[in-house]
């Protein structure tokens, strides 16, 4: 595979990774990090092993936080176990509804509605369920934001490093 093709695949991975931060079905940070891993193996690469390892550890932490933060948000706002499970189901249902043309808003509303329904099934009051739902939605938004910050940072690193590598490759071809 030529170096230019590798750089283009890296840009594609970054684009899919950023999209994956919003769509729960795609592991956005992992896909973004794979662009750095791919770039690392280029002969003219300019990414150190230390950068690769540190960014890999951060990717694992960000991925773990994505699963933990919405649960902590719901729990912080008083959700029951059923509410937490409902929020998780709501994420999946929201994703499915967003693909059916109903609207991407359900990616955000899914955890809210799921947590409310779960807490109501558990016997909570509507106000308590609403608070739990808001906590779950806030947690989902915070988790998504953390993933986006990571993936955009990886994109910036890749773009800066790949820009220099791309210029080197073009110089070799033209020179």
Give an overview of the whole structure.
The chain has helices at 3-22, 28-40, 49-76, 81-99, 105-121, 126-174. The two termini are 21 Å apart. 83% of the residues lie in helices and 0% in strands. The longest helix has 49 residues, at 126-174. The chain is mainly alpha-helical and 175 residues long. It has one domain (3-174). The protein contains six helices and no strands.
Beta-strand percentage range: under 5%
What count of domains describes the coordinates? 1
- The end-to-end span amounts to 21 Å
Largest sheet: none
Q: Could you estimate the helical fraction of the residues in percent?
A: over 70%
**Spatial shape:** elongated
Rg from Cα: 20 Å
Based on secondary structure, the structural category is mainly alpha
Number of distinct beta strands = 0
Q: What is the count of DSSP helices, taking H or I runs of 4+ residues? A: 6
Unreliable spans are: none
Mean of the pLDDT scores? Answer: 86
From N to C, what is the helix and strand string? HHHHHH
């Amino acid at each position: 595979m030529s170096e230019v093709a590798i750089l283009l695949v890296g840009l594609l991975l970054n684009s899919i990774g950023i999209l994956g931060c919003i769509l729960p079905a795609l592991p956005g940070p992992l896909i973004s990090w794979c662009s750095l891993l791919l770039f690392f193996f280029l002969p003219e690469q300019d990414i150190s092993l230390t950068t690769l390892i540190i960014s890999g550890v951060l990717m694992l932490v960000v991925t773990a936080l994505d699963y933990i933060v919405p649960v902590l948000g719901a729990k912080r706002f008083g959700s029951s176990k059923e509410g937490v499970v409902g929020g998780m189901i709501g994420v999946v249902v929201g994703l499915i509804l967003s693909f059916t043309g109903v609207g991407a808003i359900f990616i955000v509303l899914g955890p809210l509605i799921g947590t409310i329904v779960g807490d109501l099934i558990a016997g909570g009051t509507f106000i308590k369920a609403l608070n739990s739902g808001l906590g779950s939605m806030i947690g989902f938004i915070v988790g998504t934001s953390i993933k986006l910050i990571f993936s955009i940072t990886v994109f910036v690193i890749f773009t800066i490093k790949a820009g220099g590598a791309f210029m080197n490759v073009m110089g070799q071809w033209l020179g």
